[in-house]
Amino acid sequence: MTLSFRKTLFETLYKNKYLYRFASTVPFAGQWRDWQRLVLPRLRGHDVLELGCGLGDLLADMLAAGYNCRAVEHSPQMVAAARETLQRRKVGVNTTVIQGSAQGLPFSDASFDTVVSTFPTEYIYESDTIAEVARVLRPGGQLIVIEGANLLPIGFLQPLLVLIQALVYGPPAVFGPRKQRKLEEELARSRDKMAREPGVVRIDRDTGTGTTTDDVPDAWFGQHIPLEHNGLRRRSERVRSRRWEVYITFGEKS
Length: 254
Ligand SMILES: C[S@@+](CC[C@H](N)C(=O)[O-])C[C@H]1O[C@@H](n2cnc3c(N)ncnc32)[C@H](O)[C@@H]1O
Fold this sequence. Notes:
This protein has helices at 3-13, 17-23, 32-37, 57-64, 76-88, 127-136, 158-169, 171-175, 180-196, and strands at 47-51, 68-73, 97-99, 112-118, 137-151, 203-206, 211-215, 232-240, 244-253.
């Protein structure tokens, strides 16, 4: 599929809540919501801004968990859908979701402890966006980006879904992050570094949820998010379950 066709496809998705729900559920074996929820235990502080909240499911989760949240979403149709989600789940108010652009945030400096962005489009790679994030974050705050996730080609159905994703998103987006050799090399390096410098790299095995979280120094993902250029310190985590891998990039404001 060509780039322009993909762009048109995604723009169509963001104009229709039913299509978007379908597209974020079926090809991902219903795991999308689990991937979004990986944000929850990583939130810092009380005041949270979500960029590009889509249907507003994660926003509702964060509000229900007691965080004070705002969201900026570009698509008017998604703003309406997110407001409906908040109403249905009886959290937030109408002004929780603002129609606007991540490249120009309508908030004063140092307003938030955490800024969240899950499965962002190109806006996350723009310096204007990250400069705005750095501006609205308080010192000690952080940006959390779930840039992508992959189903692992296990079992009967998942290899088929992986193939469909490769057709829709393009092979580099789907197969690029799974360069096993590079990945295993990076994890081996992390373990080695941890043995030599305790506390520098954390390998956290969360057996309760069946996931493994690895800090990945020099990660191959998130590299195009211009964090350092805007004064944010980079950290990367890979969360892995039996069925999937999720790639999380943090930008910490000192
Ligand atoms: C792939 S969707 C992800 C939605 C949601 N975060 C999720 O996890 O399902 C990307 C969302 O970002 C929104 N978006 C695109 N450009 C944006 C921008 N410049 N500022 C804010 N939101 C934007 C789109 O309308 C869409 O709802």
